[in-house]
Amino acid sequence: MASKVRSIPKGWHSVTPFLCVNDAARAVEFYRKAFGATELERMAEPDGKVNHALLKIGDSIVRLSDDSSRHVAEWVAKGWSRSPQSLGGTPVHFYVYVEDSDAVFKRAIAAGAKAMEPVTDKEWGDRLGSLTDPFGHIWMIATHKRDVPFEEVSKGRAGVSRAAN
Description:
By secondary structure, the chain is an alpha/beta fold.
């Protein structure tokens, strides 16, 4: 008897980032050094460009592609995909929880990331630092240190309210 196909593949989550980068092979190596990523698969084109690669960072999957691969060229022509460098920056930030934000932040800097904001304790209970990877993507590296009620955090921020259900 055939088993039922899962709507979300085993090991995946509902949302999976797909990064467009300049030099995906170098990006895979950076993410391995900086965040302990494991490469799950890579589909290379005849010229060596990465059509797509799958990485696992912590318990999450991240896809990435070379911004000059034939695969991405189709998306670029449709206006769907650009690397942060081609746009002059990125509007997307990745908020990543890790066991030790200080250690991961230092490792990412050593691997070539640029610090944006040093690791500090935040009023909402996370210890967080922000950096830009060598490919223009922004990563916020956090360790949750304490539970803080939303109401307590919002007291210090005028106009902040919880979304209605």
